[in-house]
Design goal:
CATH superfamily: Ribosomal protein L33
Distance between the termini: 17 Å
CATH architecture: Single Sheet
CATH class: Mainly Beta
Largest sheet: 4 strands, antiparallel
Strand content: over 45%
Structural class: mainly beta
Oligomer: single chain
Mean pLDDT: 94
Strand order of the largest sheet: 2-1-4-3
Number of domains: 1
Length: about 50
């Protein structure tokens, strides 16, 4: 029941990472602080469709 998701930088709006998550256990959208190579700093990355 895991689905592939894409993580998008909240500052530059580029889609940098892909990850998986469990649909049943985690119903809200994922938000993680990760390094953006375009902004060259750690920013908040949010799940997009």
């Amino acid at each position: 029941m895991r689905e592939l998701i894409t993580l998008q930088c909240s500052e530059c709006k580029r889609r940098n990472y892909t990850s998986t998550r469990n649909k049943k256990k985690q119903t809200e959208r994922l938000e993680i602080k990760k390094f953006c190579k375009f902004c060259r700093k750690h920013t908040l990355h949010k799940e997009v469709k």
